[in-house]
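Q: Predict the bound structure with nicotinamide-adenine-dinucleotide.
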Amino acid sequence: MIRVAINGYGTVGKRVADAVAAQPDMEIVGVSKTKPSFEAYIAKKRGFPLYIADPAKRAAFEKLGLPVAGSVAEMVARADVVVDATPGGVGKDNKNLYEKARVKAIFQGGEDHEVAGFSFCSDCNYTLALGRQFVRVVSCNTTGLCRIINTLDKEYGIAKVRAVMVRRASDPGEVKKGPVDAVVLDPVTVPSHHGPDVQTVLAHIPISTMAMIVPTTFMHMHAIQIELKKDGKKERILELIEKHPRMGLVKGGLGIKSTAELKEYALDLGRPRGDLWESCIFADSVAVQGKDVSFFQAIHQEADIVVENVDAIRAMVGNVKDPEESVRMTNESLGFVAI
Ligand code: NAD
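A: Predicted complex:
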């Protein structure tokens, strides 16, 4: 069993913990919190040993009936792989701890590429992660871009990608960021960081991205235009998306034309937390004219990177060498059948 610790049991950390616990070849040795919260109660309920970043807060946890198993350093010492899901920028400060403990660590997309020197997407470069000590799982948006770009690149070759990211303002639980009522260009300058971030995984892809934030918490929406190197066929592109284990086709007949309806659909499907691990591409939006392909895809920011973290753990430990096998194991353990 691969022993996994989750440093930072928040929006991403708690989802990765549940996904790891569902795997036949992995176990959770601990999760960490900075302060007592409802998420600490959930960790206790799930039976995950709770470690704390600041030992001075032990009494505050214990007063609320939350037993503390030890410090983050003690948790790290018990793990084969640490998934660092602390807020963006904190991960790089933790790297020293992982280096000292000689433990493997995964960083999230809120960190710069340089923190690990290797940016990961299961679909694109799983085999290059085999045996690595440090890996960064790219952000939710970059993961969504990489999956479809890599798929079309393998089939047709890609001459150019242009994409506009309409981003959710905050996660549903992040009340500290609201309320908001504006469309915020993020950033005003072009390209946004997403294009260069895709190139940390797929260096050869010419891509330019623009991004804005809108007052919603549900999901991100991408408007993507791709110039292929050869003429594309709509039926074939729909087939590639439908067959892909991490992409889902939102079929016209479902009557879904918004992120709100898509999230409601995920809840109705019984997905845990209403999570959509797949990139959701709207079938009716896929337009192909010669070499030009356009479509909308919705990305559930809190979820698509969860399955990538699980695959990254397997690749780094190196016990499953075949990316398709890892993706199959991850998806099956979660009961993940694409929408
Ligand atoms: P979050 O704020 O929801 O959770 C972070 C957790 O880390 C909190 O529980 C906090 O208590 C804990 N923490 C803070 N400092 C810590 C420390 N020093 N040691 C241990 N724990 C500490 O953040 P999140 O949204 O889960 O984001 C985590 C990472 O994942 C970031 O890099 C972010 O950019 C990335 N990411 C987030 C999303 C998203 O939509 N939320 C999507 C993709 C990637």
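A: The two ends are 30 Å apart (CA to CA).
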